[in-house]
Every structure is written in C-alpha cells, then in structure tokens.
Design goal:
- By secondary structure, the protein is an all-alpha fold.
- It has one domain.
- The chain contains two helices and no strands.
- Helix 1 crosses helix 2.
- The longest helix has 28 residues.
C-alpha cells in the first residue's frame, strides 16, 4: 500500500502541474504560488483516492 500511495501522490503532483502551466513561470518569484497550487489541487485528490481505495478494499 505504501508504494501505491507514493505512486498515486506522484501522479497527482504530475497532473496538478498542468494546472499551473497557464502561469508560465518565468522566474523563481512564482515558485511558492505554484507549490501552493500543487498542494491545493493534489492533496484533496490524493486523500480522495486514498479514501476510495480504502472503501473498495472493505467491500
């Protein structure tokens, strides 16, 4: 399960980076904004998938 969680988290980080692409970062000044966007998008998705995986295992 640990490896699956890491894989899912990595995929979510990768997919959420596409949502940040519209900013087209040209400098390091926007790094914090992009990291916050990644967390705001990736963490809820990660915990949602984690919840679904736990629920499917119980059924």
């Amino acid at each position: 399960m640990k490896n699956l969680g890491l894989l899912v988290f990595s995929l979510l980080a990768l997919f959420s980076s596409a949502a940040m692409a519209h900013h087209s970062p040209a400098s390091m000044e926007h790094l914090v904004e992009h990291l916050l966007l990644m967390l705001a998008i990736g963490l809820p998705l990660f915990f949602g998938f984690k919840y679904l995986l736990k629920r499917n295992r119980r059924d």
